[in-house]
Amino acid sequence: MSEQLGLMPAQTVGPYLHIGLRWPDGPYVVPEGTPGACWIRGRIVDGTGTPVVDAMVESWQADPDGRFDHPDDPRGARPPALEGFRGFGRSETDGQGWYRLLTVKPGSLPEPDGGTEAPHLTLSVFGRGLLHRLVTRLYFPDEPAANAADPVLCSVDADRRDTLLASPASDGFRFDIHLQGDHETVFFAV
Amino acid sequence: MTTQDTRASGGLVLPRYRRDDVETHPSLLSPGYKSTVARAPRHPLIYLPQRLTEVTGPLLGEGRLGALDHDLTRQHDGEPQGQRIIVHGRVRDGDGRPVPRTLVEIWQANAAGRYRDARDTWPAPLDPHFEGVGRALTDDQGRYRFITVQPGAYPWRNHDNAWRPAHIHFSLFGRAFTQRLVTQMYFPGDPLFFQDPIFNSVRDPKARERMIARYDHATTAPEWALAYEFDIVLRGRESTPFEDEDDDE
């Protein structure tokens, strides 16, 4: 094993993260008007139940075919069939702690060992008081069979699994993120 | 099961990224930094094996950059107040490989220590010629370069007479979701390190030192700007199961 260089430690984004990280098109994983597009909205709350108004969520996901336009997808990088699909979204929270992302549901993904991962988004949460990003996953409520077979969901204690499940909303899905408390969201070490 | 079997069964061979050493990053719960108390999760993080979603990531290119995004001193008609500095460095992974064509975003306070934000109420002057925002892409060797001004220190009420050491926020994507990193660049010799719980949330003194830029006299611009070098190392890859084997059999 070769000598590893020392890694750069993480630090908080602080309260003014939106100065540098706000993109006008940040929340748009797909452009408005994309067929099948849905809004994912959610509130971030802390351990006291207070909305976190100075946080940011970033999302990353496969396209509806379950592919990534990335050279490390071993099936080969493939531009998405969906016009304007970026795979990546970024939303700061508003004055009430809400973030929002306009996207399309990703496809299922093949697993290295031959299994299948249910459609999901991976999310990073950044904010004041978070010295390192928090990583979680969002799964869809209308995929009960795929979710039941998903290896990541299955690795989580049954009584906490629902924290990774979005709920239906009028124009898409809702996914709240609890940093602490009785319903603390499951966060992952990647 | 051998690796050959994995491949024969149609399995995917994914790159894998080394897990970060536990001493590298700060503890999420660092009570000296008060905002962590109600925000750090109380359950331990759950180990997530890296799969397709984690070993890929957004590859954001030139489309995210404006012509002067790398030069924070030329984004307005007039020049900002303060000491001009060149900040440059290399982005590499833990194995020393450059991370090319990756987006680097920075934001910072102005020379007086104030952010351009309505919520920053510290009564230091705002500079009409300074936004405090920059973006750049690394080149093929992983190098980036910004021109900006030396940010000021500022008080922040975390504890009695609390002051943040001067710093520039850095955001990096790397090549994969596993490499995403947000950090802060500090300046050498800052007398405020001892009392800053954010800087000191990194327990390993060597890891803390990596967040301090190096004064780089060779890169200064005579009669114009000082210079600092800030190299950033993102996590490296594990060798794949096939890399060290004779794969021709």
Q: Please tell me what the overall shape of chain B is.
A: globular
Q: How large, in whole angstroms, is the Cα Rg of chain B?
A: 21 Å
Average pLDDT for all residues of chain A: 96
Structural class assignment of chain B = mainly beta
> So what's the oligomer here?
heterodimer
Instruction: Report the largest inter-chain contact.
Output: A-B, 74 and 88 residues
Largest sheet of chain A: 5 strands, mixed
The average pLDDT score of chain B comes to 92
- The SSE string of chain B, one letter per element, is HEEHEEEEEEEEHEEEE
Percent helix among the residues of chain B?
under 10%
Shape of chain A: globular
Count of helix runs of chain A: 3
Q: Beta-sheet strand percentage of chain A? A: 25-35%
Distance between the termini of chain B: 17 Å
> How far from one another are the termini of chain A?
21 Å
Task: Show unreliable segments of chain A.
Answer: none
GO molecular function, one term (chain A): protocatechuate 3,4-dioxygenase activity
Keywords (chain A): Dioxygenase, Oxidoreductase
Biased composition (Basic and acidic residues) (chain A): 64-76
InterPro entries (chain A): Intradiol_dOase_C, Intradiol_dOase_core, Intradiol_RC_Dioxygenase, Protocat_dOase_a
Molecular structure report:
Chain A has 190 residues and is mostly beta strands. Chain A has helices spanning 17-21, 144-149, 151-154, and strands spanning 38-45, 55-60, 88-92, 98-103, 109-110, 116-117, 120-127, 134-139, 167-169, 172-174, 177-178, 188-189. The longest helix of chain A is centred in the last third of the chain and has 6 residues, at 144-149. Chain A is globular and about 40 Å long. The mean pLDDT of chain A is 96. With 249 residues, chain B is mostly beta strands. Chain B contains three helices and 14 strands. Chain B has helices at residues 3-8, 52-55, 205-209, and strands at 16-17, 46-47, 84-93, 103-108, 133-137, 143-149, 154-155, 163-164, 167-172, 181-186, 214-215, 226-229, 232-234, 237-238. The model of chain B is unreliable at 1-9 and 243-249 (pLDDT under 50). The chains are: A mainly beta (190), B mainly beta (249). At the A-B interface, helix 1, strand 5, strand 7 and strand 12 of A face strand 2, helix 2, strand 4, strand 10 and helix 3 of B.
